């Protein structure tokens, strides 16, 4: 990237430009730098949902699933989210929670999606699979 570190933190750069830089950095695999840009873009109300969702995706792509969860939740808390956007973010959140083994939270997300959009991707199959899981109990031998 041709920007110097000084230009990356320039307060005169608009949140829209920050968001665009974040996308470019994410595409280049520079997830930490992208997150920094998305955080600065999120101050703009109209970009907050997309910026927080991108932060979550960057964390997820970096293998930092626990850090991705609060970013997706922040995106979901943006009041301007449409039903479609909410479903999309909830799905990625659900997949992230599923990867972490947090079954109850995953099912909550997937069930909300199913209520909003019953045919969304593979949500019904995921709910069925997760609902049929039985917690494994270690059997003690005496």
What is the CA-based Rg, rounded? 18 Å
Number of helices in the DSSP assignment: 8
- Coarse morphology: elongated
Name the beta content range.
Answer: under 5%
Please tell me the overall pLDDT: 90
Largest sheet: none
Low-confidence stretches: 1-7
Number of domains: 2
Number of DSSP-assigned strands = 0
Helical proportion, percent range = 55-70%
Question: What are the SSEs and their pairings?
Answer:
Layout: H1 5-8, H2 15-27, H3 31-41, H4 45-61, H5 65-76, H6 83-99, H7 103-116, H8 123-131
Describe this structure in words.
The structure is a single chain. With 142 residues, this protein is mostly helical. It folds into 2 domains: 8-64, no CATH class; 82-127. It is 68% helix and 0% strand. It has 8 helices and no strands. It has helices at residues 5-8, 15-27, 31-41, 45-61, 65-76, 83-99, 103-116, 123-131. The longest helix has 17 residues, at 45-61.
Keywords:
about 140 residues; mainly alpha; single chain; about 0% strand; 8 helices; disordered N terminus
Summarize the structure.
This protein has 142 residues and is an all-alpha fold.
């Amino acid at each position: 990237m041709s920007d110097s570190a000084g230009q990356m933190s320039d307060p005169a750069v608009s949140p829209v430009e920050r968001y665009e830089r974040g996308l470019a950095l994410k595409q280049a695999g520079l997830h930490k730098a992208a997150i920094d840009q998305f955080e600065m873009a999120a101050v703009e109300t109209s970009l907050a949902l997309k910026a927080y969702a991108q932060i979550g995706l960057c964390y997820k792509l970096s293998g930092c699933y626990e850090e991705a969860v609060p970013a997706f939740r922040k995106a979901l808390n943006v009041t301007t989210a449409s039903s479609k956007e909410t479903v999309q973010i909830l799905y990625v959140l659900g997949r992230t929670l599923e990867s972490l083994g947090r079954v109850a939270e995953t099912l909550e997300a997937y069930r909300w999606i199913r209520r909003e959009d019953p045919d969304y991707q593979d949500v019904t199959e995921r709910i069925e699979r997760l609902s049929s899981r039985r917690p494994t109990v270690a059997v003690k031998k005496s």
